[in-house]
Amino acid sequence: MVISAFTVVRNARIMGYPVVPSIRSILPIVDEYVVGIGQSDDDTRGLIASIGDAKILVFDSHWDTSRQDGGHILSEKTNEALARCCGDWCLYLQADEVVHEADLDAIVRSCRAYLDDSRVEGLLFKYVHFYGSFSVVATARNWYRQEVRIVKRATGAKSVGDAQGFLVGDRKPRVKWSGAAIYHYGHVKPPDKMGEKHRHMYRWFHGNRFERAFDDFQYRQIYGLRRFEGMHPAVMRELVAAQDWTFEPGLDLRQWNRRDYKNALSDAVETLLGRRLGERKRFELLE
Question: Which ranges of 34-162 would DSSP assign to H, the alpha helix?
């Protein structure tokens, strides 16, 4: 059994992506790690080279920065990397996603267990979303609870939309649980870095109309914030220890927007009914 990993990244340092810990987190269980590097205004290529592992296979990927098509360029670039993978399984991590070392064995066991099961086309991961601080997690329903992050190469699965999910042909992939979680650090970095990231990301969707909207970015008290009670992956602990800003979860209805009130109402309905209604799922979970 051969496991490939793949990702795409550009301007990793400018955007504050923990791409080095991300890649290192799964290097022990993969046979190759394909990295598509877009043209960058920082030393992203040198950052990747600093890992110094022969499993890492880098290729240049040109990003058309004039596009504003809702992030679809992200799936296009992701598919460029996926097409270069040679493994039976292809494990996708975005540049701000990390796997805990405690979950590595579970991932390998699942890959072995379902390798020859033609029904299974991918593996599903739970998500832990950090927000504002390495000690705070976001749990509201707009923060996706699970996503497919491993697909079988033989299925011809393709990344779609903004690269959050996959399709096999024109349908959702059929999946089993991986037994692992993804730690998502895309919304935890110094406020000025977070504002800069938002500025760059919004350009893909809206051009420069929001150019000044993030000059004084501050994390707000959104609905569903909780204290993180677990342990971070070992590869992230240096970054966690270096946090030099503070953000504490609290209740401040003055900072809530329409989505926050909608999430609060949805959670109340879910508690009443004992199940979640209307959750978007980009997969078919097999029994």
Answer: 44-49, 72-82, 104-114
The two three-digit tokens of residue 247, written as one number: 């953000």
If you average pLDDT over each of 13-17, 98-102, 142-146, which comes out highest? 98-102
Tokens of 257: 């927007």
CB atoms within 10 A of CB 219: 19
- For residue 280, CA distances in Å to 19, 92, 223, 277 come to 27, 20, 19, 9
At 21 the pLDDT is: 98
Contacts of 58 (CB under 8 A, 6+ apart): 35, 36, 37, 45, 48, 49
Would the pTM of this model clear 0.85, i.e. be above it? yes
Q: Evaluate if residue 233 carries a pLDDT over 80.
A: yes
| Residue 145 φ/ψ, nearest 5 degrees | -85, -25
- Beta-carbon count within 10 A of 156 CB: 12
Measured CA to CA, the distance from residue 74 to residue 64 in angstroms comes to 11
Regarding beta strands 174-187 and 97-99, do their DSSP bridges make them parallel or antiparallel, or are they unpaired? antiparallel
Q: What is the mean pLDDT of residues 51-65?
A: 93
More confident residue, 53 or 279: 53
